[in-house]
Amino acid sequence: MYLRSPLKAAAPALALVLLLAGCSGGGDGGNGGGDEDGASPGTSAETTDVVAETTWPYQRRGGEAEAEIHALQVRGRLMQLTITVTAGDFGDEATQSLYDLWGTFGAVPYLVDNANLTRHNVVYDSGTTLQGPNVVDTRLTPGEPRDLSYTFAAPPEDVETMDLYIGELPPITDVPVQR
After folding, report:
1. What is the pTM of this model?
2. In this structure, is residue 1 part of a structural domain?
3. Cα separations (Å) of 154 from 58, 103, 147?
4. Contact by Cβ (8 Å): 111, 174
5. Domain ranges, residue 87
6. Quick check: is 151 in a domain?
7. pLDDT at 55
8. Distance between CA 38 and CA 22 in Å, rounded?
9. Which residues of the chain have pLDDT under 50?
10. DSSP of 57-125
11. Number of structural domains, the chain?
């Protein structure tokens, strides 16, 4: 009888956990090409239009954060979603990671194109790096706004709005697509 070593047996489960957490073995800290602190490049004046505001209750502790959803900005074959999150108080801690507050939900938002009935997921680079913030390395400080940026494939030209889904939170509907 052939027995696998405990390390080899645990490898598939560990790979799944890292994938769900948005982590990577890349040299950029798994931040989707962003800065070491989890911010993503490319936020510009074009994406500053706030089209929706909501609150996100922390799933892993008491409290909530304010979230501002910015218009979806198409750039060629890709589209950028920017969300500005301002954390509320979370106790004695000076900062908390996205994972500490919400688990992996912050790493996996998706968009729905209701005109064509298609789902758009956050894209990966040519390797295995999710083009969004790393939920473990991206930290929030109470009262300080933080831009989070996610990259998706651009929808067809006729799509003017999309719905945003993040974890178990209610969807944010009709987010405008800017071209």
Report:
1. 0.72
2. no
3. 30, 27, 20
4. no
5. 6-178
6. yes
7. 94
8. 12
9. 1-46
10. E-SSSS-EEEEEEEPEEEETTEEEEEEEEEE---SS-S-EEHHHHHTTGGG--EEEETTTTEEEEBPB-
11. 1
